[in-house]
Design brief:
Layout lengths: L3 E4 L2 E3 L5 E7 L5 E10 L6 E7 L4 E3 L7 E6 L4 E6 L8 E11 L2 E6 L3 E5 L2
Parallel strand pairs: 2-11
Antiparallel strand pairs: 1-3, 3-8, 4-5, 4-9, 5-6, 7-8, 9-10, 9-11
Length: 119
Amino acid sequence: QVQLVESGGGLVQPGGSLRLSCAASGSGFDIYDVDWFRQAPGKQRELVANMTRRGSTNYVDSVKGRFTVSIDNAKNTVYLQMNSLKPEDTADYYCWVKIDTWGIIDGYWGQGTPVTVSS
């Protein structure tokens, strides 16, 4: 059973940067696809970034040019680099990672990490 552990959230001033990590435990698999979601208080969960194993990416308009998603299969870890952060980026961030284990693909959620952008 793969487990995902997220880290990297915290409090940052507007204009600052954070890098979120989502590490998958275990071995013998490849990361197939990753989605990063966020959920602000009182709002629905929102898909902010996606990356496929072929390297294609998609971002919600509000984060384009500021956020970058990446996959490091050697470390079984996915990242979300967040630059030029704004107060409206404040939310709990979740990774959803699809794992390919010998052709069987399963999805797993990270536990979430809070990001607060405030002066």
